[in-house]
Amino acid sequence: MSENKRMSLKERLLSLIRPETDKDDGIHYEGSAIRRILSYMKPHLRTFFICLMLVLLATALEIWRPIIIGDAIDEFITGQTSEVVLSSGRTEWAAGEMADARFRGVLIASAKYLLALIGLFLCNRFEYLMMQKMGQDIIYDMRNQIFTHIESLTMRFFDTTPVGKLVTRVTNDVESINEVFTDILIKLFRNVVKIIGLIIIMLSLNARLALYSFILLPVVLVLTVIFRLISRKTYRMVRTRLTAINTYLSEHLSGMKIIQVFGCEEQKLDEFSEKNDDLYKAGYREMMVFALFRPGLYLLSVFALAIVMFFGGKTALANVITIGTLYKFLQYIGSFFEPIQELAEQFSTLQSAIASSEKIFTLLDTKPLIPKNEHPTILPEIKGRIEFDHVWFSYTGDEKDWVLRDVSFVIEPGQSVAFVGATGAGKSSILNLIGRYYDVQKGAIRVDGVDIRELSREQLRRAIGQVQQDVFLFTGDIRGNIRLLDENITDQQIEDAAREVNAARFIERLPGGYSSRVTERGATYSAGQRQLLSFARTLAYQPKILILDEATSNIDTETEQWIKEAVHKLMQGRTAIMVAHRLSTIQDCDRIMVMHHGRLRESGTHQELLQLDGIYKRLYELQLE
Question: Which residues form the domain of 559?
Fold first, then answer.
């Protein structure tokens, strides 16, 4: 073998001992992950203790089986026939009765062995079913807890956290923890009990031969410790790189149209191949760890078996122990290394679960940037008066990055107000603040005279109907996308809302009508149709405050006319706030506010702003040109 190849092999072996780490993991969980995992078992302790009792009984039956066979060998197979001279003096009767006694003894031993097998089967079956049921119940609750917590997090969290990472937390990482409850805990207990039981029974049978059996035990323990250390790092690396590839897939599958439009398939394939290669290397390293540990442990068990056969055979030939006792030792030594190997592998699987749990608990410990008011003010009815009082706002919280600077205005109930300005002026930020998707750093925002930080978020957001530029439709049907799981909205209300915003014009032409299927993100519908469905959805909820964020920017001229009619109807009796770059769509608003570099610079009607000869007039003239 060449020097280069020897170095390559050496580097590979060293990489198993000191596996590389991923710097972008970002997980720094502080606390006892094991203790927190076990806390989920509190409602199921009774089931768990019953399973432990079943495991104890199953382990006892498993240890008892070689004793049945060994005793049968000594008593009924290898034992010398005693010539029992009966009162008649005929020894052939004694031999015949002894043969019958041996046969009956073998039958009894067979029956005992069969009963042990049946008992072992029943114990394992009921323990398995109970643990699987308990594990699935716990994981079901954990998934709900994680998703509920994700829903409680603020928009800033989703701005900075990839969707693929969250998907991995809810699916792969939770499933990894599932193994703790359904498999690892019970097997750890079973294997520890089995090892202790085997040690006790072997020492009681013959202490000298038992000590010969344990000669290689220190080597096994050292190998197990090394395996645990290596496998823990390897498991963490696999989980981290799995998260990375899921994050990449989530983002790039969503943007596949852009990738194909700009012909970036080869570059993106190279990027994916790099991440796939990283995951492959981590998986290969994991495989190599097991490929070294399992055969090594098996080899040690073979050596131990040879030692027992050598010394046990000599002892049996010297009539110190019986053949049945030697059989028991051979069976036990074969069983002795199996739970040790399983223990090491279970500890490694446990390390994988711990690595996953650290990621999950870090997510669960993420505090929402907008704290929930435990004792909110509940208004009898939200009328729609909105007041910004010297509001300063930054997405990052850094005073160098102010998006809004000392913004103050009042919108009375029923007024229609439009915000205009260049990109980045702060228009959409105002809309996000009204729904309290972010909190201001300075100043206050009031709805009906109450600071929105004191209001119930549920009541506030329920009163706001928001139509965004990028409409999101869920997989399902049209009726479900308008209702959004609110069963209080009837089918008649859905159809009325669709007619009022002119969405019924295309819905009723579809083969399935309101039951027509909607694919992921509504890909089979045009931008105008998706926008009309968004208007119908908003109207169905009967909001007091209507927010339109560039709602007509992606719509053709005909559809825009339909929406202008719908918007006029929607505004009746509601506070309406619009953001639009196309000034022709907002000329009829009661008031137009001009934002520039985060400040409110001009305010008035369309004609009043034109007479000011300021920012608004320049924007208007640019659009006319």
Answer: 386-624
